Amino acid sequence: MELVCGCYEQVLFGFAVHRELGGSGQSEKWTPVADFTHHGHAASLSAVAVNNRFVVTGSKDETIHIYDMKKKVEHGALMHHNGTINCLKFFGNGHLISGGEDGLICVWDAKRWDCLKSIKAHKGHVTSLSVHPSGKLALSVGTDKTLRTWNLIEGRSAFIKNIKQNAHIVEWSPSGEKYIVVTINKIDIYQLETASITGTITTGKRISSVTFISDSILAVAGDEEIVRLFDCDSLKCLCEFKAHENRVKDICSFEVPEHHVIVTASSDGFIKMWRHNPNKKTPPSLLCEVNTKARLTCLGVWLDKVTDAKDQLPTAAAPSPVNKEEQEFKTSPQKSDDSAGKQQQSKKFGWTKDNKKPTKAENVVSVKKRKLEGILEKKKKKKVQITE
Fold first, then answer.
1. What's the pLDDT score for residue 7?
2. Do the Cβ atoms of 234 and 193 come closer than 8 Å?
3. Domains in the chain, ordered, with CATH?
4. Confidence (pLDDT) at 172
5. Cα angle vertex 145, ends 86, 82, to 5°?
6. Which spans does this entry mark as compositional bias, Basic and acidic residues (predicted)?
7. Do β-strands 2-7 and 296-302 pair in parallel, antiparallel, or remain unpaired?
8. Count of H helices and E strands in the chain?
9. pTM of the model
Protein backbone atom coordinates (compact mmCIF):
# COMPACT_ATOMS: atom_id res chain seq x y z
CA MET A 1 0.00 0.00 0.00
CA GLU A 2 1.32 3.43 -0.92
CA LEU A 3 0.04 6.96 -0.33
CA VAL A 4 0.77 9.27 -3.28
CA CYS A 5 0.08 12.98 -3.26
CA GLY A 6 0.92 16.05 -5.31
CA CYS A 7 1.52 19.62 -4.22
CA TYR A 8 1.90 23.21 -5.35
CA GLU A 9 5.68 22.77 -5.19
CA GLN A 10 5.54 20.48 -8.28
CA VAL A 11 6.61 17.37 -6.32
CA LEU A 12 4.96 13.94 -6.17
CA PHE A 13 5.34 12.22 -2.78
CA GLY A 14 5.13 8.50 -2.10
CA PHE A 15 4.76 6.93 1.35
CA ALA A 16 4.70 3.16 1.85
CA VAL A 17 2.29 2.17 4.62
CA HIS A 18 3.39 -0.74 6.82
CA ARG A 19 0.82 -2.61 8.89
CA GLU A 20 1.86 -4.43 12.06
CA LEU A 21 -0.42 -6.68 14.06
CA GLY A 22 -0.88 -5.47 17.63
CA GLY A 23 -0.43 -7.64 20.68
CA SER A 24 -3.24 -8.97 22.83
CA GLY A 25 -5.78 -6.23 23.36
CA GLN A 26 -3.91 -3.82 21.10
CA SER A 27 -5.09 -2.50 17.76
CA GLU A 28 -3.19 -2.89 14.52
CA LYS A 29 -0.40 -0.35 13.99
CA TRP A 30 -0.11 1.54 10.71
CA THR A 31 3.15 3.33 9.90
CA PRO A 32 3.79 5.50 6.80
CA VAL A 33 7.41 5.44 5.64
CA ALA A 34 8.87 7.84 3.07
CA ASP A 35 9.40 5.92 -0.19
CA PHE A 36 10.10 8.53 -2.89
CA THR A 37 9.72 12.10 -4.05
CA HIS A 38 9.80 13.04 -7.70
CA HIS A 39 10.00 16.48 -9.29
CA GLY A 40 8.74 15.64 -12.75
CA HIS A 41 6.34 18.47 -13.57
CA ALA A 42 7.12 22.09 -14.41
CA ALA A 43 4.06 23.43 -12.54
CA SER A 44 1.86 22.50 -9.59
CA LEU A 45 0.11 19.12 -9.63
CA SER A 46 -3.66 19.23 -10.06
CA ALA A 47 -4.82 15.60 -10.29
CA VAL A 48 -3.71 12.07 -9.48
CA ALA A 49 -5.16 8.65 -10.34
CA VAL A 50 -4.08 5.08 -9.57
CA ASN A 51 -4.77 1.56 -10.79
CA ASN A 52 -3.12 -1.76 -9.96
CA ARG A 53 0.09 -0.93 -11.78
CA PHE A 54 0.39 2.79 -12.49
CA VAL A 55 0.08 6.19 -10.87
CA VAL A 56 -0.64 9.08 -13.23
CA THR A 57 -0.44 12.77 -12.38
CA GLY A 58 -1.87 15.81 -14.13
CA SER A 59 -0.47 19.31 -13.84
CA LYS A 60 -0.87 22.93 -14.82
CA ASP A 61 2.08 22.33 -17.18
CA GLU A 62 -0.46 20.60 -19.53
CA THR A 63 1.13 17.14 -19.27
CA ILE A 64 0.19 13.79 -17.75
CA HIS A 65 3.08 11.81 -16.24
CA ILE A 66 2.99 8.03 -15.82
CA TYR A 67 4.75 6.11 -13.02
CA ASP A 68 5.17 2.35 -12.88
CA MET A 69 4.74 1.64 -9.17
CA LYS A 70 5.89 -1.99 -9.32
CA LYS A 71 9.18 -1.16 -11.05
CA LYS A 72 9.48 2.26 -9.38
CA VAL A 73 10.27 3.99 -12.66
CA GLU A 74 8.85 6.93 -14.57
CA HIS A 75 7.11 5.49 -17.62
CA GLY A 76 6.74 8.62 -19.76
CA ALA A 77 4.45 11.58 -20.42
CA LEU A 78 1.25 12.21 -22.39
CA MET A 79 0.90 15.57 -24.10
CA HIS A 80 -2.46 15.83 -25.85
CA HIS A 81 -4.20 18.53 -23.77
CA ASN A 82 -3.78 22.28 -24.01
CA GLY A 83 -4.21 23.71 -20.53
CA THR A 84 -4.35 22.38 -16.99
CA ILE A 85 -5.26 18.72 -16.50
CA ASN A 86 -8.22 18.99 -14.12
CA CYS A 87 -9.26 15.36 -13.70
CA LEU A 88 -7.91 11.84 -14.22
CA LYS A 89 -9.85 8.60 -13.77
CA PHE A 90 -8.83 4.99 -14.37
CA PHE A 91 -11.37 2.35 -15.25
CA GLY A 92 -9.80 -0.91 -14.15
CA ASN A 93 -6.37 -1.49 -15.65
CA GLY A 94 -7.23 -0.99 -19.29
CA HIS A 95 -8.27 2.62 -19.68
CA LEU A 96 -7.49 6.11 -18.42
CA ILE A 97 -9.82 9.06 -18.97
CA SER A 98 -8.58 12.65 -18.69
CA GLY A 99 -10.27 16.05 -18.77
CA GLY A 100 -8.77 19.51 -18.96
CA GLU A 101 -9.12 23.24 -19.40
CA ASP A 102 -9.26 22.81 -23.18
CA GLY A 103 -12.71 21.22 -22.83
CA LEU A 104 -11.42 17.85 -24.07
CA ILE A 105 -12.08 14.41 -22.63
CA CYS A 106 -9.47 11.90 -23.79
CA VAL A 107 -9.71 8.12 -23.51
CA TRP A 108 -6.31 6.39 -23.28
CA ASP A 109 -5.27 2.78 -23.66
CA ALA A 110 -3.52 2.23 -20.32
CA LYS A 111 -1.24 -0.48 -21.74
CA ARG A 112 0.02 1.02 -25.01
CA TRP A 113 -0.78 4.59 -23.87
CA ASP A 114 -2.43 5.42 -27.19
CA CYS A 115 -5.17 8.07 -27.33
CA LEU A 116 -8.21 6.05 -28.41
CA LYS A 117 -10.63 8.96 -28.47
CA SER A 118 -10.47 12.73 -28.11
CA ILE A 119 -13.84 14.41 -27.52
CA LYS A 120 -14.65 18.10 -27.37
CA ALA A 121 -16.83 17.62 -24.30
CA HIS A 122 -17.54 21.12 -22.96
CA LYS A 123 -17.47 24.66 -24.31
CA GLY A 124 -15.56 25.69 -21.19
CA HIS A 125 -13.22 23.71 -18.93
CA VAL A 126 -13.88 20.09 -17.97
CA THR A 127 -13.84 20.36 -14.17
CA SER A 128 -14.67 16.77 -13.15
CA LEU A 129 -15.60 13.38 -14.59
CA SER A 130 -16.63 9.98 -13.27
CA VAL A 131 -17.02 6.55 -14.90
CA HIS A 132 -19.98 4.30 -14.06
CA PRO A 133 -18.95 0.99 -12.40
CA SER A 134 -20.22 -0.87 -15.50
CA GLY A 135 -17.86 1.08 -17.76
CA LYS A 136 -20.73 1.88 -20.15
CA LEU A 137 -21.45 5.44 -19.00
CA ALA A 138 -19.47 8.44 -17.87
CA LEU A 139 -20.48 11.80 -16.41
CA SER A 140 -18.70 15.12 -16.79
CA VAL A 141 -19.27 18.68 -15.61
CA GLY A 142 -17.71 21.89 -16.87
CA THR A 143 -17.67 25.65 -16.72
CA ASP A 144 -20.37 25.82 -19.40
CA LYS A 145 -22.89 24.99 -16.64
CA THR A 146 -23.79 21.59 -18.06
CA LEU A 147 -23.83 18.03 -16.78
CA ARG A 148 -23.16 15.62 -19.64
CA THR A 149 -23.73 11.89 -19.85
CA TRP A 150 -21.45 9.95 -22.21
CA ASN A 151 -22.20 6.65 -23.88
CA LEU A 152 -18.83 4.90 -23.79
CA ILE A 153 -20.08 2.04 -25.97
CA GLU A 154 -20.55 4.40 -28.91
CA GLY A 155 -18.15 7.12 -27.75
CA ARG A 156 -20.67 9.95 -27.98
CA SER A 157 -22.79 12.29 -25.86
CA ALA A 158 -26.00 10.65 -24.60
CA PHE A 159 -27.63 13.44 -22.59
CA ILE A 160 -27.01 17.07 -21.67
CA LYS A 161 -28.52 18.71 -18.59
CA ASN A 162 -28.24 22.43 -17.93
CA ILE A 163 -27.48 23.36 -14.33
CA LYS A 164 -27.73 26.82 -12.80
CA GLN A 165 -24.13 27.02 -11.56
CA ASN A 166 -20.70 25.74 -12.54
CA ALA A 167 -20.26 22.34 -10.92
CA HIS A 168 -16.75 21.26 -9.92
CA ILE A 169 -17.32 17.66 -8.75
CA VAL A 170 -19.34 14.74 -10.14
CA GLU A 171 -19.15 11.23 -8.67
CA TRP A 172 -20.94 7.88 -9.08
CA SER A 173 -21.86 5.83 -6.02
CA PRO A 174 -20.13 2.40 -5.73
CA SER A 175 -23.26 0.58 -7.02
CA GLY A 176 -23.86 3.10 -9.80
CA GLU A 177 -27.50 3.57 -8.74
CA LYS A 178 -26.97 7.22 -7.82
CA TYR A 179 -24.56 10.06 -8.47
CA ILE A 180 -23.80 13.43 -6.94
CA VAL A 181 -23.06 16.84 -8.43
CA VAL A 182 -21.28 19.48 -6.32
CA THR A 183 -21.63 23.23 -6.90
CA ILE A 184 -19.77 25.46 -4.42
CA ASN A 185 -21.17 24.27 -1.04
CA LYS A 186 -24.14 22.25 -2.28
CA ILE A 187 -24.40 18.53 -3.11
CA ASP A 188 -27.28 17.39 -5.32
CA ILE A 189 -28.03 13.66 -5.18
CA TYR A 190 -29.47 12.12 -8.36
CA GLN A 191 -31.03 8.72 -8.99
CA LEU A 192 -29.87 7.01 -12.18
CA GLU A 193 -33.32 5.63 -13.09
CA THR A 194 -35.09 9.00 -13.03
CA ALA A 195 -32.07 11.35 -13.57
CA SER A 196 -33.77 13.63 -11.06
CA ILE A 197 -32.59 15.16 -7.78
CA THR A 198 -33.74 13.15 -4.76
CA GLY A 199 -32.06 15.28 -2.11
CA THR A 200 -29.62 18.10 -1.43
CA ILE A 201 -26.89 18.45 1.20
CA THR A 202 -25.59 21.93 2.04
CA THR A 203 -22.47 22.85 4.02
CA GLY A 204 -21.19 26.15 5.39
CA LYS A 205 -17.98 26.30 3.34
CA ARG A 206 -16.99 25.48 -0.23
CA ILE A 207 -16.64 21.73 -0.82
CA SER A 208 -13.23 20.66 -2.12
CA SER A 209 -13.58 16.87 -2.23
CA VAL A 210 -16.06 14.06 -1.61
CA THR A 211 -15.82 10.28 -1.50
CA PHE A 212 -18.37 7.49 -1.08
CA ILE A 213 -17.48 5.30 1.91
CA SER A 214 -20.43 3.05 1.05
CA ASP A 215 -23.40 3.37 -1.25
CA SER A 216 -25.28 5.42 1.35
CA ILE A 217 -22.51 7.17 3.30
CA LEU A 218 -20.69 10.15 1.82
CA ALA A 219 -17.58 11.80 3.30
CA VAL A 220 -17.39 15.53 2.57
CA ALA A 221 -14.33 17.80 2.95
CA GLY A 222 -14.01 21.49 2.19
CA ASP A 223 -12.37 24.80 2.92
CA GLU A 224 -12.22 24.06 6.63
CA GLU A 225 -10.57 21.66 9.07
CA ILE A 226 -13.64 19.46 9.54
CA VAL A 227 -14.71 16.34 7.64
CA ARG A 228 -18.37 15.31 7.78
CA LEU A 229 -20.10 12.01 7.04
CA PHE A 230 -23.60 12.23 5.57
CA ASP A 231 -26.35 9.68 4.99
CA CYS A 232 -27.41 10.04 1.33
CA ASP A 233 -30.91 8.72 2.06
CA SER A 234 -31.87 10.73 5.15
CA LEU A 235 -29.52 13.64 4.21
CA LYS A 236 -28.51 13.84 7.88
CA CYS A 237 -24.96 14.39 9.15
CA LEU A 238 -23.96 11.15 10.89
CA CYS A 239 -20.82 12.59 12.49
CA GLU A 240 -18.07 15.13 12.03
CA PHE A 241 -14.47 15.37 13.18
CA LYS A 242 -11.59 17.82 13.06
CA ALA A 243 -9.16 16.25 10.62
CA HIS A 244 -6.53 18.98 10.14
CA GLU A 245 -5.36 22.43 11.20
CA ASN A 246 -6.08 23.89 7.76
CA ARG A 247 -8.50 23.27 4.87
CA VAL A 248 -8.80 19.70 3.60
CA LYS A 249 -7.83 19.58 -0.09
CA ASP A 250 -8.54 15.95 -1.00
CA ILE A 251 -10.10 12.85 0.49
CA CYS A 252 -10.41 9.21 -0.55
CA SER A 253 -11.40 5.90 1.06
CA PHE A 254 -11.00 2.14 0.72
CA GLU A 255 -12.14 -0.94 2.58
CA VAL A 256 -10.16 -3.42 4.66
CA PRO A 257 -11.54 -6.31 6.73
CA GLU A 258 -13.76 -5.11 9.61
CA HIS A 259 -13.62 -1.38 8.79
CA HIS A 260 -13.17 1.37 6.22
CA VAL A 261 -10.14 3.64 5.90
CA ILE A 262 -10.51 7.34 5.10
CA VAL A 263 -7.44 9.23 3.87
CA THR A 264 -7.23 13.03 3.99
CA ALA A 265 -4.70 15.53 2.66
CA SER A 266 -4.55 19.16 3.75
CA SER A 267 -2.91 22.49 3.02
CA ASP A 268 -1.21 22.07 6.40
CA GLY A 269 1.07 19.46 4.75
CA PHE A 270 -0.29 16.43 6.59
CA ILE A 271 -1.67 13.21 5.16
CA LYS A 272 -3.79 11.32 7.69
CA MET A 273 -5.42 7.91 7.69
CA TRP A 274 -8.58 7.28 9.72
CA ARG A 275 -10.33 4.08 10.82
CA HIS A 276 -14.11 4.18 10.37
CA ASN A 277 -16.65 1.58 11.43
CA PRO A 278 -19.78 2.14 9.29
CA ASN A 279 -21.91 0.29 11.85
CA LYS A 280 -21.18 2.91 14.48
CA LYS A 281 -22.04 6.61 14.45
CA THR A 282 -18.86 7.53 16.29
CA PRO A 283 -16.27 9.71 14.51
CA PRO A 284 -13.37 7.90 12.83
CA SER A 285 -10.21 7.33 14.87
CA LEU A 286 -6.71 8.30 13.69
CA LEU A 287 -4.62 5.42 12.34
CA CYS A 288 -1.47 7.34 11.36
CA GLU A 289 -0.22 10.61 9.92
CA VAL A 290 2.78 12.02 8.08
CA ASN A 291 3.95 15.59 7.49
CA THR A 292 5.12 16.34 3.94
CA LYS A 293 5.85 20.01 4.74
CA ALA A 294 4.29 20.95 1.39
CA ARG A 295 1.00 22.52 0.27
CA LEU A 296 -0.86 19.42 -0.86
CA THR A 297 -3.33 19.53 -3.76
CA CYS A 298 -4.28 15.95 -4.72
CA LEU A 299 -4.21 12.47 -3.22
CA GLY A 300 -4.39 8.80 -4.20
CA VAL A 301 -3.87 5.38 -2.61
CA TRP A 302 -2.08 2.63 -4.55
CA LEU A 303 -3.21 -0.72 -3.14
CA ASP A 304 -1.13 -3.09 -5.32
CA LYS A 305 -4.08 -5.37 -6.11
CA VAL A 306 -3.89 -8.37 -8.41
CA THR A 307 -5.09 -7.55 -11.94
CA ASP A 308 -8.75 -8.40 -12.41
CA ALA A 309 -9.98 -9.10 -15.94
CA LYS A 310 -13.45 -7.93 -14.90
CA ASP A 311 -12.16 -4.37 -14.56
CA GLN A 312 -11.85 -3.92 -18.33
CA LEU A 313 -14.25 -1.83 -20.37
CA PRO A 314 -16.78 -3.99 -22.27
CA THR A 315 -15.44 -5.06 -25.67
CA ALA A 316 -18.15 -3.15 -27.49
CA ALA A 317 -17.34 -0.09 -25.38
CA ALA A 318 -13.95 0.50 -26.94
CA PRO A 319 -14.28 4.00 -28.44
CA SER A 320 -13.58 4.29 -32.15
CA PRO A 321 -10.04 5.40 -33.01
CA VAL A 322 -9.45 9.05 -33.75
CA ASN A 323 -8.53 10.17 -37.24
CA LYS A 324 -4.93 10.32 -38.46
CA GLU A 325 -4.45 13.92 -37.40
CA GLU A 326 -5.67 13.21 -33.87
CA GLN A 327 -3.41 10.16 -33.57
CA GLU A 328 -0.26 12.24 -33.83
CA PHE A 329 0.04 12.90 -30.11
CA LYS A 330 3.06 12.39 -27.90
CA THR A 331 3.29 9.36 -25.63
CA SER A 332 5.79 7.05 -23.97
CA PRO A 333 7.77 4.68 -26.25
CA GLN A 334 7.12 0.97 -26.41
CA LYS A 335 9.64 -1.65 -25.29
CA SER A 336 12.60 -2.23 -27.57
CA ASP A 337 15.12 -5.06 -27.82
CA ASP A 338 18.08 -2.71 -27.58
CA SER A 339 19.31 -1.53 -24.21
CA ALA A 340 19.41 2.10 -25.30
CA GLY A 341 15.67 2.00 -26.00
CA LYS A 342 14.98 0.62 -22.55
CA GLN A 343 16.97 3.38 -20.93
CA GLN A 344 14.95 5.98 -22.81
CA GLN A 345 11.64 4.39 -21.93
CA SER A 346 11.90 4.41 -18.13
CA LYS A 347 13.66 6.51 -15.60
CA LYS A 348 14.21 5.69 -11.94
CA PHE A 349 12.67 8.08 -9.46
CA GLY A 350 13.79 8.29 -5.85
CA TRP A 351 14.55 10.62 -2.98
CA THR A 352 15.45 13.74 -4.90
CA LYS A 353 13.91 17.03 -5.92
CA ASP A 354 16.48 17.65 -8.63
CA ASN A 355 15.27 15.16 -11.24
CA LYS A 356 15.07 16.95 -14.56
CA LYS A 357 11.81 16.95 -16.44
CA PRO A 358 12.04 14.32 -19.22
CA THR A 359 12.56 15.85 -22.64
CA LYS A 360 10.32 14.95 -25.57
CA ALA A 361 13.20 13.15 -27.30
CA GLU A 362 13.98 11.02 -24.26
CA ASN A 363 10.65 9.47 -23.39
CA VAL A 364 7.95 10.46 -25.84
CA VAL A 365 7.50 9.26 -29.39
CA SER A 366 4.70 9.38 -31.94
CA VAL A 367 2.60 6.38 -32.90
CA LYS A 368 3.72 6.60 -36.55
CA LYS A 369 7.37 6.51 -35.54
CA ARG A 370 6.83 3.37 -33.45
CA LYS A 371 5.12 1.63 -36.36
CA LEU A 372 7.90 2.64 -38.77
CA GLU A 373 10.59 1.36 -36.40
CA GLY A 374 8.72 -1.96 -36.11
CA ILE A 375 8.56 -2.37 -39.90
CA LEU A 376 12.28 -1.57 -40.31
CA GLU A 377 13.19 -4.04 -37.55
CA LYS A 378 11.24 -6.84 -39.31
CA LYS A 379 12.99 -6.09 -42.63
CA LYS A 380 16.40 -6.27 -40.95
CA LYS A 381 15.58 -9.68 -39.43
CA LYS A 382 14.46 -11.01 -42.85
CA LYS A 383 17.71 -9.83 -44.49
CA VAL A 384 19.78 -11.58 -41.80
CA GLN A 385 17.88 -14.84 -42.32
CA ILE A 386 18.40 -14.71 -46.13
CA THR A 387 22.14 -14.06 -45.70
CA GLU A 388 22.51 -17.00 -43.32
1. 95
2. no
3. 2-327 (2.130.10.10)
4. 95
5. 35
6. 323-340, 351-360
7. antiparallel
8. 4, 29
9. 0.77
